[in-house]
């Protein structure tokens, strides 16, 4: 009987765990939200991840439960742990990824460099923060935001009244997170894998290019990165993985400020878009590494296979037709580009695939990835 | 709806098509011989590939039918073609891979370099061939042989009487193939991919090391290969792929003789053990290339990703326990080795997995692959 990993969630991250698991010889089972999702090939169950009984039944058939996303409620996670299921990352770590105020608090306790931040309960408190930070700031809903959702730049305390009103309706009450508007040069991401038994391996820090709050492109490693930058980023990633007891892959989104500091922006405790380059650019991809880590198997070598790797997302896809209709032109033009699609229907802004390229000349590598990806758009 | 490839046969070659298909965004469906086979993750049907109705029903759900092995009977292949199914490679090409006498005849027509050979119908004819070739020769059953089975070195016409007797019982009658015993320096393999629309891409020729008639190790590209050797091998591979109208992957097993000629030993019209290195050592693996080729998609770049790649088969596996019990020690010792296992139970001599390594120093690369593979043996 092979080792069996259970993934809650049937999206593209679960899908992309299938290939390395099959290659290694690990069985992947997926609890998908509905039929026909990205990871449907490995879906052995379809059901609601918010229902403890559904997730407990799914967990019975696997050695460890891990996740395609961070939205599984704490009650469900606790029920799994109480039933003796190995849950990786565990509920305590996931809580931090689920709530940005908890995250900021814990990172402060760990002494990690962050933007100035505060928990604000009403417009007056928000205005107070604005007054102390040059009149503009970023407001975030602590839960449920992703890809630019639940994030708003404001210049008056009154500009988040709708969110305060929603909070007031929520039985849990609570606050919004407000952060200083960081004057950053660029955004970076540091990925680290950690096993329950403690082994940690860090990937080289990468540059992420966002458009409209969504990751558009990743360059690995980050260009013009000094030894010091690489070291500091890795130290931050490892300190967070260890400090928060993360198991599996951790992505730390970072701002590189114009005064050359690194500040932690967001965390993700799963494979992450900033690491898709590793499928074709690293000895061990983030997806293989995540599978190894959650099974507490020795981690693989995260070293790059080439000088440069570039990942370009296919955002939206063609207005008409399917992605695979674009294969002939894209594959003919760029035989060295690695095209990945997720089995999702095209829709404006949706992440439906990505292209990876590797090589020695960054201009060429980036051009090839962008050009190949553009074949899947209009 | 994604493109859909149907693979007849549920063995490890079908299994290894799953990962690149999932990554590209192609759906793989497998008709497996039984439950629990290597490719069971993608098995949508279980049944007998010798039964036309079973295979026809399976073919209804896919865009193209291809194969994990060459054993599908011609009657079944014809029924598929008659029903309008795209079958790749097609029946005419597969017939040549299914029968070694047909293969020798067709290669002779194509002017390919081969060992001296003859079709012999009885012990007297075999003795005649022996007398003309130094008293020793290789006798092969035209059908059904693989991994050293159906192959025998003889030095007397009487040493194949059991096979002649079996032939006599077979309603089809027929002959045995006898070939001169080639004085070879080493064995090589040339792989070529060909699309129905004609595009051809060749991999670099590799050295294959056999033990007991079974492939034990592959070095890519073949060490000490002159430009001329590389060119001649590629020319032979391309000529056979085009001459026989192969679609998908073709492997040409070659002898390099002590007098520096290349002679064709065997053909395989599918992904082949000699190309497993390409999963981690080439820009486009043979499995991705096969999927592209049979779908008539543009072929990928077959170039190596590193100076050297070495593949070592895991033959047999541990006498007790499962392969995955050996993961911790193997993965810890060789974090850069890529371990592939097939979900098969260990059994003496059985191919249950392989290890790929890549790098700049051949000694190191070969040592690492052998050492990692040895962790899965006793």
Describe this structure in words.
2 copies of one chain form a homodimer. Chain A is an alpha+beta fold and 378 residues long. Chain A is built from 12 helices and 17 strands. In chain A, a hairpin with a 2-residue loop joins strand 11 (206-211) and strand 12. Chain A has 3 domains: 4-87, Rossmann fold (3-Layer(aba) Sandwich), CATH 3.40.50.20; 116-180, 2-Layer Sandwich (Dna Ligase, domain 1), CATH 3.30.1490.20; 184-374, D-amino Acid Aminotransferase, Chain A, domain 1 (2-Layer Sandwich). The first copy, chain A, has helices spanning 12-24, 52-59, 74-82, 91-98, 100-109, 123-132, 161-169, 227-243, 278-281, 286-294, 327-333, 362-374, and strands at 4-8, 27-32, 43-46, 64-67, 117-120, 137-140, 151-154, 176-180, 184-194, 200-202, 206-211, 214-220, 248-257, 262-268, 308-315, 338-341, 351-359. In chain A, 31% of the residues lie in helices and 27% in strands. In chain A, the strands form 3 sheets. In chain A, strands 9, 10, 11, 12, 13, 14, 15, 16 and 17 form a 9-stranded antiparallel β-sheet that branches. A 4-stranded parallel β-sheet of chain A has the order 3-2-1-4, with helices on both faces. Chain A has a 4-stranded antiparallel β-sheet with strand order 5-8-6-7, with helices on both faces. Chains A and B meet through helix 1, helix 11 and strand 16 of A and helix 1, helix 11 and strand 16 of B. Chains A, B: Keywords: ATP-binding, Ligase, Nucleotide-binding, Purine biosynthesis. Chains A, B: It is an enzyme of class 6 (ligase). Chains A, B: Homodimer. Chains A, B: Belongs to the PurK/PurT family. Chains A, B: This is N5-carboxyaminoimidazole ribonucleotide synthase.
């Amino acid at each position: 009987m092979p080792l069996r990993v259970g993934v809650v969630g049937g999206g593209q991250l679960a899908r992309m765990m299938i290939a390395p698991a099959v290659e290694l010889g690990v069985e992947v089972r997926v609890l998908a939200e509905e039929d026909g999702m990205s990871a449907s090939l490995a879906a052995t169950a379809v059901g609601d991840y918010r229902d403890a009984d559904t997730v407990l039944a799914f967990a019975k058939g696997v050695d460890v439960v891990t996740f395609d996303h961070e939205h599984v409620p704490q009650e469900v996670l606790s029920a799994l742990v109480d039933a003796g299921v190995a849950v990786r990352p565990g509920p305590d770590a996931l809580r931090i990824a689920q709530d940005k105020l908890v995250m900021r608090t814990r990172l402060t306790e760990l002494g990690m460099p962050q933007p100035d931040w505060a928990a604000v309960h009403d417009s007056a408190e928000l205005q107070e923060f604005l007054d102390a930070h040059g009149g503009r700031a970023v407001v975030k809903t602590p839960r449920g935001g992703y890809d630019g959702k639940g994030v708003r730049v404001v210049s008056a305390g009154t500009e988040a009244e709708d969110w305060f009103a929603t909070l007031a309706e929520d039985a849990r009450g609570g606050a919004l997170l407000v952060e200083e508007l960081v004057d950053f040069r660029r955004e970076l991401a540091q990925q680290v894998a950690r096993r329950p038994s403690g082994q940690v391996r860090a990937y080289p820090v990468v540059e992420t290019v966002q458009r409209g709050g969504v990751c558009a492109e990743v360059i690995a490693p980050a260009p013009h990165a000094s030894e010091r930058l690489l070291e500091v980023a890795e130290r931050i990633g490892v300190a967070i993985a260890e400090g928060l007891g993360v198991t599996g892959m951790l992505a730390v989104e970072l701002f590189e400020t114009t005064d050359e500091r690194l500040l932690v922006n967001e965390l993700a405790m799963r494979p992450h878009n900033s690491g898709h380059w590793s499928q074709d650019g690293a000895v061990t991809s983030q997806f293989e590494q995540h599978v190894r880590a959650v099974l507490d198997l020795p981690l693989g070598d995260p070293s790059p296979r080439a000088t440069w790797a570039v990942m370009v997302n296919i955002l939206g896809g063609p207005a008409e037709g399917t992605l695979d209709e674009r294969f002939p032109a894209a594959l003919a033009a760029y035989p060295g580009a690695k095209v990945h699609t997720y089995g999702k229907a095209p829709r404006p802004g949706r992440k439906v695939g990505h292209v990876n390229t590797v090589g020695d000349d960054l201009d060429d590598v980036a051009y090839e990835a962008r050009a190949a990806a553009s074949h899947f758009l209009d």
